[in-house]
């Protein structure tokens, strides 16, 4: 697939997802009513998405048929959860978890 086709695909898919979201807002008639009803649900989306992305890569870090525990990844995941618990942002838990992972891996090589 050439570069132009790939960019066109990205643009078409992005436009499609935008139109799907816009259609739900337009069906309800007002964004304010929609946001008031779904505020609690929308607050749960970032942690759920972050967990869905991170947990499989933590537990299945290498191709295998069984769990292969990597203590550095588990410690970084715990640090990320603790930072997320006291932070209201999605940015700081990701940064803190990655820094923790890199420091632990560096310490593992040094020691």
Any overview of this molecule?
By secondary structure, the chain is mainly α. The chain has 2 domains: 1-46; 60-111, no CATH class. 82% of the residues lie in helices and 0% in strands. Helix 3 (71-86) packs antiparallel against helix 4. The chain is extended, with a radius of gyration of 20 Å.
Overview in brief:
The protein is mainly α and 111 residues long. It has four helices and no strands.
Give the distance, in angstroms, between the N- and C-terminal Cα atoms. 46 Å
Estimated share of beta-strand residues? under 5%
Q: What's the number of extended β-strand segments?
A: 0
- Number of separate domains: 2
Largest sheet geometry? none
Helices and strands, in order, run as HHHH
Mean pLDDT: 81
The low-confidence parts are none
Q: What portion of residues is helical? A: over 70%
Structural class: mainly alpha
Quaternary structure: single chain
Rg, rounded, reads 20 Å
Total of helices: 4
Features:
extended, single chain, 4 helices, 111 residues, mainly alpha
What's the structural blueprint in terms of helices and strands?
Elements: H1 3-28, H2 31-59, H3 71-86, H4 91-110
Helix pairs in contact: 3-4
């Amino acid at each position: 697939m050439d570069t132009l086709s790939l960019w066109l695909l990205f643009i078409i898919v992005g436009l499609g997802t935008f139109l799907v979201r816009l259609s739900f807002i337009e069906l309800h008639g007002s964004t304010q009513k929609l946001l008031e009803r779904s505020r609690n649900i929308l607050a749960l989306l970032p942690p759920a998405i972050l967990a869905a992305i991170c947990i499989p890569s933590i537990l299945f870090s290498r191709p295998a048929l069984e769990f292969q525990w990597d203590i550095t990844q588990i410690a970084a995941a715990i640090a990320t959860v603790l930072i997320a618990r006291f932070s209201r942002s999605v940015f700081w838990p990701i940064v803190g978890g990655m820094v923790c992972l890199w420091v632990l891996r560096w310490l593992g090589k040094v020691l």
